Amino acid sequence: VYVLQVGRVEQPLAVPRAPWDVATVAFEISRRHRYVEELTRIPESVAVHVLPSGTSSAPTVSLSQARGRRVAERIEQAYAASTAYLAGDPVEPD
Questions:
Q1: Where are the domains of the chain?
Q2: Which of 27, 46, 51, 59 could share a disulfide with 82, CB 3.0–4.6 Å?
Q3: Integer CA distances (angstroms), 79 to 11, 47, 52, 59, 76, in order
Q4: d(Cα 56, Cα 43) in Å, to the nearest integer?
Q5: Are 11 and 58 in contact (CB under 8 A)?
Q6: Element (H, E) at 4
Q7: For residues 43 and 18, what is the distance between their CA atoms, to the nearest angstrom?
Q8: What's the farthest any 2 CA atoms get from each other in the chain?
Q9: Which residue from 78, 62, 70, 59 is spatially nearest to 4, judged by alpha carbons?
Q10: Do residues 15 and 54 make contact, with C-beta atoms less than 8 angstroms apart?
Q11: 38 three-class SS
């Protein structure tokens, strides 16, 4: 099974700086917990490959608010990192 992860799993959580950031961090903790929990439920007979995103950062805005050029750059980074991973080359985030 090949997994395209599109979240912020590859980067550390940030300390909340404003009251509304607490909700964002709490949501991210919940997402990460669910992600790890689901991975642990996969039978040992199934090989899981989580494809890299190719970047060490993730946007904090939704894609509808993001600039088109930046989205295209992130797609290219993920494509290059996933291609390298599938070819067996080491992948280093930007």
A1: 2-87
A2: 51
A3: 18, 21, 9, 17, 5
A4: 29
A5: yes
A6: strand 2-4
A7: 41
A8: 45
A9: 78
A10: no
A11: helix
φ, ψ of residue 80 in degrees (nearest 5): -65, -45
For the question of whether the overall pTM of this predicted structure is more than 0.85, the answer is: no
Structure tokens that stand for 33 in this block: 């917990």
Q: Which amino acid makes up residue 16? A: P
Element (H, E) at 75: helix 68-87
CA–CA gap between residue 78 and residue 54 (Å, rounded): 5
Q: Which of 66, 13, 5 is nearest to 39 (CA)?
A: 5
Q: pLDDT digits over 54-84, tens only?
A: 876 665 555 455 567 778 888 898 899 999 9
Q: What is the CA angle 30-31-36, rounded to 5? A: 100
Place of tokens 């991975």: 39
